Structure formats: structure tokens, C-alpha cells
Inverse folding.
């Protein structure tokens, strides 16, 4: 039984991390925030909470009050895989600042830590209802291997960044993000050629076809340099219960959210054709009153 679990853990680790340098790119399939994940990962044009730090930093400009977001995932429900994310976003006079930390690891094998700092700003387009949001993220990516009897790869830290834009109207939003503008390499084995942190892009749209319903779609860089199409939808009941579903790269996603005055709790699941189902839960907590709201 333990052998079967170890094989499953190793397989999942190869999908998520690449356990043998340089097996595949590091920081693959990073996902933060249950809301964006449950919408088929098509959140690039509609991100409007602290998770926008990852999905599209331009979306941070939509925040009207400070927010703390905590995110925990169970990839394929395997005990040796751990993944979590935390971020805080704070609207200020010159824009919205955010900082976040994403951690993912395979116990006693390898861990990835991604530290991010973002700045987003917003401006109007002419005198109409359309607005343009822009944002950028500075990232420090650290990969660390545990020492074994056979090898000691140590740890490496590399710096890169993202840049994004969102144009928002009364019902329609379009967005674009370039990830890893600089493509640093993690070279743990001398002469091994190194494993780059590849440049990626996502472009998407969101349409509020009903006050309580939204459709989102996106296309972006997928595995093996092919395009990955994504689509999702959300229905909100009485501003309290949200039901979401989506499809991303032949993987089905879904989840629900509960919203109260002082918190929002979201859950998500993602299917995988070989490894099963991953689960995720997020808690968003506003840290102050929004504009025009009494404390």
C-alpha cells in the first residue's frame, strides 16, 4: 500500500514540479485562489481580488478596500504534496500594492517558493464608463532540493516579473498578461543545460450577461508550446451563494462560494485524467471598510 502511494506521489510530483533536474520547467501549473480555479482558470480578465496578484496584477486596481487572502490545496489528495498561498492587497492613493507567497513541495524531495510584489493602477478612458487597469509583478522564484545520499543539488533563486492589462466596461472586460518577461534558468547540474522559467501569456474576456451571472473565457500558453483554451461560468444567488464551473485543457473544474459581510469562503476542485481530483479552499477577509462604507 505504501509503495503504491509512493508511486502516485512521484507521478504527481513529476506533473507539478519535475523531481529530477532538468526534467521539466519549474513552477508549472501554479494556481491560486479557489474562485479563479473553479472558473476553469479563465480569470485573466475578471480577477478583482487579492488572487489577481497571480492571475493578472492589473485586476488589483479594482479592489476598493484592503484584503487578505489565504489559500490551501490538496493536489490529488496525497499527503506528501503540499501547496498553499497567502497574499495581502492594499489600495493606496497612487495605486494598489500587493504581496504574496506561494509554496509547493514534495516532502523530503523538492520545494518551490514564489515571492511576489505587485503594483496596479487604474484610469478612465475618455468620459465614458470604460476604465483601463495596468499592473506589474516582481517575482523571486526559489527552488530547493533536499539533500540525499546520492546528490546535493542545494537551492537556487531567480528573479523575473509579469505585466498585465485589463480594460473594463459596464458588462465586458478584456485582459492580457505576460508572465516571466525575463526567462531565468535553474541550472542544478553543471553542464546540464539548465531548466528555464518559460515566458507565458494569457488573454481573456469576461461578460456579465446578467447581474448575477458571468461568463469567462481565456486562451494562453499551455504545455508543449500549444495553446490552452479555457472557459467558465458563475451564478450568484442573493449575493451570498456562488456556483461555478469550467473546463481547462480537458480538465473539469467547479466549486462554490459563500459571501458574508466580513469574509468570503470559496472552494474548488480540478480533475486530472490520470491522477484524480485536486481540491482547494480559499478565505478572503477584508481588512477595512470600502469607500463610502461606515465601519
Amino acid at each position: 500500500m505504501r509503495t503504491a502511494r509512493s508511486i502516485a506521489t512521484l507521478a504527481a510530483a513529476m506533473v507539478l514540479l519535475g523531481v529530477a533536474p532538468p526534467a521539466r520547467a519549474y513552477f508549472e501549473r501554479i494556481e491560486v485562489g479557489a474562485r479563479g480555479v473553479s472558473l476553469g482558470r479563465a480569470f485573466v480578465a475578471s480577477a478583482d481580488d487579492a488572487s489577481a496578484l497571480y492571475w493578472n496584477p492589473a485586476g488589483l486596481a479594482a479592489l476598493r478596500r484592503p484584503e487578505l487572502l489565504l489559500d490551501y490545496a490538496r493536489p490529488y489528495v496525497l499527503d506528501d504534496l503540499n501547496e498553499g498561498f497567502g497574499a495581502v492587497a492594499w489600495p493606496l492613493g497612487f495605486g494598489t500594492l500587493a504581496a504574496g507567497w506561494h509554496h509547493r513541495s514534495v516532502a523530503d524531495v523538492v520545494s518551490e517558493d514564489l515571492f511576489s510584489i505587485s503594483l496596479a493602477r487604474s484610469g478612465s478612458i475618455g468620459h465614458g464608463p470604460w476604465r483601463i487597469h495596468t499592473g506589474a509583478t516582481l517575482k523571486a522564484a526559489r527552488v530547493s532540493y533536499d539533500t540525499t545520499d546520492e546528490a546535493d543539488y542545494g537551492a537556487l533563486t531567480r528573479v523575473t516579473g509579469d505585466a498585465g492589462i485589463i480594460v473594463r466596461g459596464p458588462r465586458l472586460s478584456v485582459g492580457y498578461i505576460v508572465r516571466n518577461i525575463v526567462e531565468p534558468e535553474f541550472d542544478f547540474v553543471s553542464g546540464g543545460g539548465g531548466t528555464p522559467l518559460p515566458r507565458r501569456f494569457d488573454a481573456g474576456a469576461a461578460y456579465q450577461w446578467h447581474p448575477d451571472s458571468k461568463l469567462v473565457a481565456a486562451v494562453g500558453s499551455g504545455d508543449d508550446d500549444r495553446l490552452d483554451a479555457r472557459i467558465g461560468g458563475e451564478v450568484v444567488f442573493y449575493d451570498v451563494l456562488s456556483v461555478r464551473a469550467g473546463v481547462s485543457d480537458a480538465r473539469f473544474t467547479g466549486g462554490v462560494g459563500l459571501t458574508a459581510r466580513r469574509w468570503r469562503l470559496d472552494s474548488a476542485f480540478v480533475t486530472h485524467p490520470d491522477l484524480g481530483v485536486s481540491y482547494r479552499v480559499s478565505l478572503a477577509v477584508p481588512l477595512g471598510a470600502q469607500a463610502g462604507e461606515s465601519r
Q: What stands out?
A: Helices lie at 2-16, 34-38, 52-55. The domain at 2-286 is CATH 2.40.160.40 (Porin).
